[in-house]
Amino acid sequence: MKPRFLLPVAVLCLCLGAGGLLWAQDEPSAALEQSEEEFFASADVEAAAGQAEIRGLAEELDRERVGLSGNLEASGSYILTRDFLRGDQGLDDNELPLMVQGDFLVDVRLKKGFRAFLDLSIGYLAGGAPVPHSFTVVSSSDPTWLYAPGMVLLVTEESTTLIGLKEVFVDFNIANAVYFRAGKQVLQWGRGILWNPTDLINVQRKSFQDLEALREGVFGLRADVVFARAFHLYTFFDLNGVQDLSDIAVAARAEFLVGSVEFAFSGWARPSEIPVFGFDLSAPLFWDLSFHGEASLSWGFPVDKMRTNGDTYPIRDELVPRVSVGLSRSFDAWDVQDRIVVNTEFYYNHLGYGENMFEVLAPDPVHLAEFLAGYYRSGDYGKYYGALFVTFNRFLTTNMTLNVSGLGNFSDLSFIAMANLSYAPVNNFTLSFTLGSYLGSDLREYTVLRRADGTLGGGALSVGLGARVAF
């Protein structure tokens, strides 16, 4: 796609929007209901009990208000290395990440569906802790980035302050039929629980340790057209780091509802880049099972890979499929509805490495650091993956939950097994205990631990404690 084609694309989107206006006006109530469910679902602002019934639902939804909410969490974990368990290293070889972090949300809602939203993240490290790339180091004494099983660690000898702006955007609409969102935002596209091969926009992927964690958004303009309850059109212009019209990426998604089956077609394109097409589906099955799946397909792919000698090369002239499929089911137990919830997912990644890059690059710290910084992405490194999530609600007591989960790279046979026990003694306050184990041979994706001197070791066990307050 060349820059001169961007104007026809923009005109086409506006024409679709105008058509959506005429179509949606035939079903104003359905459009309004869908807009509240889908478009404004990123933060909750609840009315006091009885208020909506007294004032009327329409009046309550159209009331101006400012919502202040968020969460604050103090956490710490202790990672035991394989060298320590084998007796080759002392206690100093283990890692002790300690961190306080929080998200502060400001949600300003005006009449007629106009809105502004901000998610400000802050963090304070006492030594080293799992830190997403959305954070910016404000003050630190020469921080060192390390890689640990399934995460990145920022390790410093002194305290470190971090700050990040995950999301900041404004919402506006035309006649409750065409909706716009401008700013830094997270797109909720795709059906996958952990893997979303159709998502080529978001800069931060879902975390295995916390699937519900707030993620960093990408800067751009989103436009949603509500044609009818059974058909939505979503478009997104990716303006992140754009310096020229040729840098703009365009993504579109057409979503359909047929009975209880939801499916969508999607596409992504950027001038001079290889386009990628996608399809996703969710549907109920027999035995109360729920199926979800999504896949992307392209001739080549708009990323580069690294060779074992440190050189890089583009992905061209080959069919590149990426597929994730999963099943979900809840079970009633001991007179409690949906007490046990089970989710499982499988992922095939044609872009995965066939070689063990950690083992090959271990003797070369320079190329290893380059690989980890620019070419490695957790959960996209191998070709075959699987994940299992089991939740036991009301475990032992009413306000206790047990989550047992597993993540596996079947290509290099490395795995993470994790159990998290959370207890909420009062509303909006949660205590948690986490036990993790990193299984497989040394120098595999989920057993690698990079030391401060640039060499690689192995993670074995981790124990974590945390306290979280929501407000």
What is the CA–CA distance across the termini?
A: 46 Å
Number of domains: 1
Mean of all residue-level pLDDT scores: 83
Backbone CA Rg: 23 Å
Q: DSSP strand (E) fraction?
A: over 45%
Principal-axis shape: globular
Low-confidence parts: 1-40, 42-47
Order of H and E elements: HHHHEHEEEEEEEEEEEEEEEEHHEEEEEE
Task: Give the total of beta strands.
Answer: 23
How many helix segments?
7
CATH class: Mainly Beta
Q: What assembly state would you assign to the polypeptide chains in this entry?
A: single chain
CATH architecture: Beta Barrel
Q: What structural category characterises the helix and strand content?
A: mainly beta
Question: What is the element layout, followed by pairings?
Answer:
Layout lengths: L5 H19 L3 H12 L11 H5 L1 H5 L3 E17 H5 L11 E12 L5 E11 L2 E3 L5 E4 L4 E5 L2 E5 L4 E15 L3 E8 L32 E11 L2 E8 L10 E10 L2 E9 L6 E9 L5 E17 L5 E22 L2 E14 L7 H5 L3 H10 L9 E9 L7 E10 L4 E13 L2 E11 L8 E3 L5 E15 L1
Antiparallel strand pairs: 1-2, 1-23, 2-3, 3-8, 4-7, 5-8, 6-7, 8-9, 9-10, 10-11, 11-12, 12-13, 13-14, 14-15, 15-16, 16-17, 17-18, 18-19, 19-20, 20-21, 21-23, 22-23
Task: Please provide a written account of the structure.
The chain starts with 5 loop residues before the first helix and ends with a strand. The chain has helices at residues 6-24, 28-39, 51-55, 57-61, 82-86, 357-361, 365-374; strands at 65-81, 98-109, 115-125, 128-130, 136-139, 144-148, 151-155, 160-174, 178-185, 218-228, 231-238, 249-258, 261-269, 276-284, 290-306, 312-333, 336-349, 384-392, 400-409, 414-426, 429-439, 448-450, 456-470. It has a single domain, classed as Porin. It contains seven helices and 23 strands. It has an 18-stranded antiparallel beta barrel. Strands 4-7-6 form a three-stranded antiparallel beta sheet, with no helix packed on it. 13% of the residues lie in helices and 51% in strands. A hairpin with a 5-residue loop joins strand 15 and strand 16. The protein is mainly beta and 471 residues long. The longest helix is centred in the N-terminal third of the chain and has 19 residues, at 6-24.
